[in-house]
Amino acid sequence: MSDIHSYRTILHPTTAEFKDKNSRFLAFAYPILTADDFKPHLDALKKEHFKARHHCFAYRLGYDGTNFRANDDGEPSGSAGRPILGQIDSFEITDTAVIVVRYFGGTLLGVPGLIHAYKTATQMALQNAEIITKNIEKTVQIQCDYATLNSVLRLAKQFQAPIVQQDLQVDCRLTLRVPLSSYQAFAQAIGQERNIVFQAA
Asked: How much is the pLDDT for 23?
C-alpha cells in the first residue's frame, strides 16, 4: 500500500429516495472519519424516522479501506447492508457511510427486490455526492527554538503541510500533517535545519 498517496471520498452529506411497491427507501450518505463519527448520524435518523421499519447501513473507512461494516437491521441476511457497501465500493470511495431508511409499503419485495432497492437508493445518493480526492497525510511533531521557526513555517508551506496545532511558549511545538507523497523529502529538508526535534506521531 506504500505507493498509495491519495484516496476518494464524498465532500458533503447527500440524500436520495427510491420507491418500489409503496415501500420508500430513503438513502443518506455521509463523509465520516471514524466509526464514532457514524453513530450520531444513525441515532439522529432513528429518532427522526422512528416509524420506519428498518435503518440499514454500511460504511468503509481508512485510505486502505480495511475497516468496514454492513448491517441489515432485520431485513433478510445480505439483502440490505451488503448491497449498500457494494455501491460504496463501486464508486471507489472510503471514509463514507450510507444509511437507508425503509418505510414498508405493505407488499413484500422478496430478497432480489430488496437487494435492488437498497442498491439503487444508495447509488442515487452517491450520484448526488461531490466526490473528491484527498491526500493521505502523515502527522509529525516538531520542536524548535524561535530562531528556527521561520524555516519550519517556510518548509511547511513549501510541502503543503498544514499546521494543525501549535504551542509557541517556552519553545515552539508544532503538529503538522505532511502529504505522504512528499514526506521523505520533507523529513530530509527538516533534517538539514539546526535545533529541530522532529518525530512522526
From this structure: 96
Classify residue 1: in a domain, yes or no: no
Residues 90 and 75 in one domain: yes
Residue 196 is predicted with a pLDDT of: 85
Q: Under DSSP, is residue 100 helix (H, G, I), strand (E, B) or coil?
A: strand
The total number of structural domains in the chain stands at: 2
User: What DSSP assignment string belongs to 59-84?
Assistant: EEESTT--EEEEE-TTSSTTSSHHHH
| pTM for this model (two decimals) | 0.79
Q: What is the chain's Cα-based Rg? A: 22
Single out the residue of 23, 24, 93 nearest to residue 58, CA to CA.
Answer: 93
How many CA atoms, within 13 angstroms, populate the side-chain half-sphere of residue 48?
12
Q: Does residue 128 contact residue 18 with C-beta atoms inside 8 Å?
A: no
